[in-house]
Each structure stands twice: as C-alpha cells, then as structure tokens.
Amino acid sequence: MKIAVFGSKHQKKEQVEKLFAILRKNNTEIYLQEKFYIYLKDALKLQYDIAGVIKTDDFEADLVVSIGGDGTFLRTASIIGKKDIPILGINAGRLGFLADVGEKDFEATFTDVFSGNYRIEHRSQLHLTTEHKDYHGFNYALNEIAIMKQDTASMITVHAYIDDEYLTSYEADGLIIATPTGSTAYSMSVGGPIMAPTTSNFVISAIAPHSLSNRPLVVSDSSVITLDVESRNNNYLISLDGRSNVLTTGTKLRIEKGAYSLKVIKRKENTFFDTLRNKLMWGIDPRQS
C-alpha cells in the first residue's frame, strides 16, 4: 500500500516515531510531503527510509495520512484536490473534529485500516467562482468560505441572494458560508448550528451582525449563493479554509456545492455523535471532578 504522509511543524517526536513504526511494520510504501520531510530531518533529527518525497500536487497514493490538527487536515485536503484519495486525520493538535484519531488509538485504527475494517464518509465542499477569476489559489473549501472586513474598523455590507432571489443585506464584520463539516469550526464560534457532516445543507452565519434579529440560516446544498460586498475602503478579505485573498468591492461572488467530495476515513465504531460528546464534553458536569 502506498501511503502519503502530510504533517505540520508542531509534532511530538514520540507520536511521529509511533506512526512510522506502525507503517513500517505493515510494509507500506511511505511518501512524505517535502516540508514535513525537512522538518522531521532538521528539527526532530528523524530520518526514515522512504519511497519518495512529495514536492508538488502531482502524486499518487492509496491513502493519505494527515498528522497534526484540523488546520493541517484542511491544508492536506486542498493538496489532494480532485485525486479521490481517502484521507485519515491523526490528532496532534487540540480539539480535532477532522483529525480525530488520538495517540492512544493509533494501533487499533491502523489495524482496522489495513484490514479494511473502516468506513468512508463523503464530505461536501464549497466552490467559489468570480467573473474574472479574482481569487488566486485552490477555490474549494471543506470547512467554510468567510467574507470579512479588511484594514478598517467599519462594518461591511454583504448583499446575499439565494438562487438569484434576494435574501437580505448583512451589516456585520463578515459572513460565513459553511459546509456541514465546517459547522463545528468558525461557524460554530459565531453561534451557527451544528450539522451532521453528511447532511445536504450549508449554513450562512453573520460575524458580529449589526442587527440583533439576525440569525444563522440553513439552506439546501443545491442552492447557489451569490454575494455582493460593500466596504468603506473598497476592499474586503475572503478566506477559504484560511487561505486568504483581498478583493475589491464590485466583485460578485458565486458559491455553490463543489463537483466532487472529499473521502474521509473513519473507524466503524467512531461516530460523529461520539465525537461531539467527547470533544464538546456534552453531559459532563463541570462541578464534578
């Protein structure tokens, strides 16, 4: 089996050593992302006999392992793009909804993976287009597309349309369009609802809205969302899973469901609702030790 490993520069040496011991024991061909390879060699003084170093987006693998936090997972997902390669997220960060395999579960998880005892969840993505291709970079987002004010204390105004029907004009610090996967990320932090990751919806949530009557809105993922932005300094920031560009007002944004989904590997006994209970500590009384 060919396995591509992507990681961040914030790894515990013990975790990396444990991961590679498991991969070598199962006779896998290991390919390392170049930046992660350099970090392991120079910072952690670890060097392994690997099959190759991934220097571009042009690579093949049977499985991709992302070790880090959810940010590392999102960067890895953007590199996978349309390759249709399943991705397994190992948590070396903090909360970890995407990278949810903890160190204590390494052995059991890879035993399941190598025996085929796992399931694949197909996660929908957002696709951004503009008339003149103003956004530079990978224009898909697994979590969210966020429109935010830039270099000013003043609010921006976002005129929103659903399938060409006028919805409303948001006066706020910004607006978030999130997938079900992203409903537990930035969207949740501004009061958006949590959605099960395989549902067929998007959620629209304002960031610090001027109107107290403004509430998050869930729409079908078959909807086409069009946005026009007004700003006092004629600029605004647009971010796709943290990858940001500055655009000028007058740039119409078209946001819709991507043409392809991302394959995410999950252990059969690990469900989204288990993750919610564990990560958000639902049902735990903080008054009790």
UniProtKB/TrEMBL annotation:
Any single GO CC term annotated in Swiss-Prot or TrEMBL for this entry: cytoplasm
Positions with a binding annotation for NAD(+): 70-71, 75, 143-144, 173, 184-189, 208
Keywords from the UniProt entry: ATP-binding, Cytoplasm, Kinase, NAD, NADP, Nucleotide-binding, Transferase
EC number(s) given by UniProt: 2.7.1.23
Annotated localization: Cytoplasm
Positions annotated as active site in the UniProt record: 70
An example Gene Ontology molecular-function term: NAD+ kinase activity
Catalysed reactions, as listed in the record: NAD(+) + ATP = ADP + NADP(+) + H(+)
Cofactor(s) it depends on: a divalent metal cation
An example Gene Ontology biological process: NADP+ biosynthetic process
Stated role: Involved in the regulation of the intracellular balance of NAD and NADP, and is a key enzyme in the biosynthesis of NADP. Catalyzes specifically the phosphorylation on 2'-hydroxyl of the adenosine moiety of NAD to yield NADP.
Family: Belongs to the NAD kinase family.
Name of the protein this chain belongs to: NAD kinase
Annotated source species: Dysgonomonas hofstadii
